[in-house]
Write the structure tokens for this entry.
Amino acid sequence: MNIDNIIDYALSKPQNFPGKHNVPTCRTYKQQQPLEPKAQCLIIWRSFIQYMDDQLRAGRSVNIRKFGAFTFDVETELPKISMGRQVNINADMASQRADRKNVHHLKPRFVVDEKIQYHLNRYHGKEQINPPGSQKSIYSKGFRMIYANSVPIASAAQMGKEVVDDCLQAIFLAVEDLVRQDRNLSLQMGFCCMRFTNRALTTHFANYLGKEVGNKSFETQMRRTNSPVSTMWKTNTEAMFRASKMGNIVSKPNRHVTEALSQKT
């Protein structure tokens, strides 16, 4: 079963998965017509995947309620001493220093939620997430963890925040219900592929994500910020969102065209 079948299953049982996603709802722009329940759920799922891809490529771990957490396994090695290294006359000084500073090696990982763990026999557990040497806490599930924010997802899908919350909650609850019924599921998320087969969970991340995370320049993105606070207050976030992939998932209506058409009718 893919995401289409999971959405059909959730919509077929509104008593088990209640919410605003079960009926056509108003869009963000009044010029847009309400969509059918399945169509708006598919748009929300597509926006959710793009949001997750942006967060992971920015070096942020994301915790999804009632589903799990996408995070990084940080492997720390000892600092590289410059004495005794092989000299490469073709490499510049900046690249050699970057190689010596790269002591944290990251790999993308997924930690499944405890409620879904109860119905699984095999899964990648917490043993796959080892805290780095700079983090001594054994309870750490990842680095720079945040909760999945439904506000940018709703803005990308051009729907209400309540609809997005109800839709995602229904999808993840349906996944738990189907796993409990021994159904085989396949979630294609672009940045990873998740398969639930015979109560076993396997997660395969995309090659581009592994290469970006393993790059020596990615460690600088794990910082909280690389610019002063004054730059953040001067940044036009609305323009940045419109130029991003999330801002172009659903094309916004042309106000002048819609007003001209409404006057003719």
Q: What stands out?
A: The first strand starts at residue 61 and ends at 64. The chain has ten helices and seven strands.
